[in-house]
Amino acid sequence: MEMTLCHQWRSFCFPNLSNVCNNNCPNNTSHCFGFLKAKKRRRCTSELDKKSSPFSAVYVESSAGVGGETAAAVVERRKSRRYQVSEGHPSPLGATPRDGGVNFAIYSSNAVSATLCLIALSDLPEEKVTEEISLDPFTNRSGDVWHVFLKGDFKDMLYGYKFDGKFSPEEGHYFDSSRILLDPYGKAVVSRGEFGVLGNEDSCWPQMACMIPNFEDEFDWEGDLPLKYSQRDLIIYEMHVRGFTQHESSKTQFPGTYLGAVEKLDHLKELGVNCIELMPCHEFNELEYYSYNSVLGNYKVNFWGYSTVNYFSPMTRYASAGIRNCGRDAVNEFKLLVREAHKRGIEVLMDVVFNHTAEGNEKGLILSFRGVDNSIYYMLAPKGEFYNYSGCGNTFNCNHPVVRQFILDCLRYWVTEMHVDGFRFDLASIMTRGSSLWDSANVFGNSLEDDLLTTGIPLDSPPLIDMISNDPILSGVKLIAEAWDTGGLYQVGSFPHWTIWSEWNGKYRDIVRQFIKGTNGFSGAFAECLCGSPNLYQEGGRKPWNSINFVCAHDGFTLADLVTYNNKHNSANGEDNNDGENHNHSWNCGQEGEFASISVKKLRKRQMRNFFLCLMVSQGVPMMYMGDEYGHTKGGNNNTYCHDNDINYFWWDKKDESSSDFFRFCHLMTNFRHECESLGLYDFPTAERLQWHGQAPGRPDWSETSRFVAFTLIDSVKGEIYVAFNAYHFPVTIALPERPGYRWEPLVDTSKPAPFDFLSSNLPERDTAIKQYSHFLDSNLYPMLSYSSVILTLTPAVIA
User: Where is the Glycosyl hydrolase family 13 catalytic domain positioned along the sequence (predicted)?
Assistant: First the structure.
């Protein structure tokens, strides 16, 4: 076939072919033409300046053309002075070192063009692109994946993408070719290097870019292997990485960082914790809420981090290294935290936020997912509006085939590459909702009659949960659901589980709070909580360890504030006390606030011990919140999301002050739980092991006005233990069960001051303290003060 060059339009033109190109080339005898092999996908190379164009028109080969004729395909290839460029591979997604170079692959089904942006670390603060590689839609696209392979020197080089296509919010598209976007699969995000510090020109959102991995990115795991604890043996500690060591009293070398947390891991081991649940450590922007707070005279930030920018990248500003080495050192610091935790026998769980991202609603930012393929990644209404089941402006489209594969890939990465031991899923009920345009053909590849469902409807067998539950890697790690969302879906006890998912048991929290503070009508429900909530989990085939029991967590009152305030005191947030939960089931013990009488303060300490004892003797998995072990207060603020200050910091000096008081009690109670075989049962206790009691043995009182619950539990290590809770406002004398040949001895009595609240074996005055009750114990009785709880153990009777 004859081929000529149309000089006016700088195009290859082919005579005698018509209706091929839509560009209406003015050459009377030809039309602009190009297509790749036998695909018949056409493209015009018009308006390319041979002198200044970054492209070269390359003759590829003959291929079948229109009407069976053959023609040469013309392919535009991006010239690069720095790199050798070739087609690349569509998998795996992300940037992957291979064959002496790096393969870049990213999914975008609705974009019409894609450009790989390479950015030198020195150019990033100026928001300059060092080099652009335009991707050919014929050679650099397979299906809906854009890809390219580069060879060259990537030292101190970062990357991002530009996509072009429709900017049509009403159709769900937000393509903007001027935006440099983060790769959803980027392994480290580089921007600002220091937490809370503004970018150039005081920008809260300076340009971000992704680290380019290389073959030298290795970490010495020193033989680290998963601990693989049985979940029923866990004691979980919810921890904020920065808040754990940022306070000056931590005296760590690198406060507020992964390395700082490593320096304090021995504290957790001493406490008896064998699992930490890290509040969000995925890349987020703490300056997202940056605004002046006139109440405190400082600036509000996103301290908690529940607003993800990138799911594969650890939070770089939690690393002492910051963005050094293009973020690689931050990745290694996170790995170091995991490795050192494992050395101390502590598993590491991650709190992950797959319910929404930092991009917000239609008025929000274009950072990554929105600019890459908005209609795929977010749950949209027919006219492009964002569903808001998260309460944060958008909802991640979790059960879309592409998105659920993304989530699966991300979770696998954190397990296999970062060695984490499991995940807590924030607002996990969103992951059970149907995706946009939900139908079985979209999900399973075949349609069913009348299968069209409303977007966001809860699914009985959500594909994402199914995939995670049956994945050979993920099915073997801890999976914990916060089984509700802000759209009104509450699934505690009914979250789709495949028998392996656990739940934050919010019902446990509410019931225990109400019973301990002396509310009528909760004795029976409280007993269910002590047994691992069989009313919630037994019928569905789950076990006590599927219940994550907690009294306090990051959102809500701390343990000390739970017994100090009746009402929230959130004025420090600058929202006129309108934010935060109003129904806290708290009790101030008689006076509001920290300034109270001695008797009120004593009662508060007693109540704190009651709550912690309850947590440790309940079947299921106990979880405590950072700082509760020494009685941290937030001044009654139950929504401290925005404070990078002492409100959210762990006060190590206060912990040391209370080492002979509440911390000692917590430490001894966790050790007691570890020692008792019966306090972490695989299955729900039956009458063969557990017996209920009232103030008289064997006569429990489940009436509406009852505030007393007691039980005995057979234990293969301790023999038998007796546990009682008196939530009345008056003292009671209880009759203990008869055990011929044995005598009951007090081990724990929360009404006693330290160190007599826990009569440990090494306590010098232990025998003297027990003798004080001999006249009661000789009669098989024990006195309990109001609002107190006790643990007694059996010891062989001494015959006089």
Answer: 238-673
Quick count: other Cβ atoms within 10 Å of Cβ 741?
8
Instruction: Report whether 367 contacts 359 (CB < 8 A).
Output: yes
**What residue has token string 């009777």?**
797
* Cα dihedral 530, 532, 538, 540 in deg (nearest 10): 140
Q: Which two tokens stand for residue 514?
A: 């109400």
Number of Cβ within a 10 Å radius of residue 7: 10
What lies within 8 Å, CB to CB, of 596 at 6+ separation is: 564, 588, 589, 590, 604
Cis before 92 (ω within 30): yes
Pairwise CA distance, residues 701 & 778, whole Å:
25
CB 569 within 8 A of CB 709: no
How far is 379 from 368, CA to CA, in rounded Å?
16
3-class DSSP assignment, residue 423: strand
> Which residues lie across from 647 on neighbouring strands?
none
Residues contacting residue 428 through CB under 8 Å, at least 6 positions apart: 355, 481, 482, 483, 485, 495
Domains and CATH numbers, the chain: 83-211 (2.60.40.10), 505-675 (3.20.20.80), 685-796 (2.60.40.1180)
Say if residues 553 and 629 touch (Cβ distance below 8 Å): no
Tokens of residue 256, six digits: 């507020």
Grouping H, G, I as helix, E, B as strand and the rest as coil, residue 674 is helix
Decide if 165 contacts 111 (C-beta within 8 A): yes
| Stated pTM of the model | 0.89
Count of Cβ atoms closer than 10 Å to residue 183 Cβ: 25
Tokens of 222: 């020193």
**Cα 619–chain centre separation:** 25
SS3 category, 527: helix
Find out whether 696 and 735 touch, Cβ atoms under 8 Å. Answer: yes
Supply the residues annotated as catalytic.
426, 482
Q: Name 518's Cβ contacts closer than 8 Å, sequence gap at least 6.
A: 587, 707, 727, 728, 729, 787
Number of helices (H) and strands (E), helices first, in the chain?
17, 36
10-residue averages of pLDDT along the chain (800 residues): 32 32 35 29 32 35 34 44 94 96 98 98 94 97 98 96 97 97 98 95 96 91 97 98 98 98 98 98 97 94 98 98 95 98 98 98 97 97 95 97 98 98 98 80 57 81 97 98 97 96 98 98 98 96 97 98 98 95 96 96 97 98 98 97 97 82 96 97 97 97 98 97 98 97 96 96 93 93 98 85
Does 382 sit behind a cis peptide bond, omega within 30 degrees of 0 on the bond before it? no
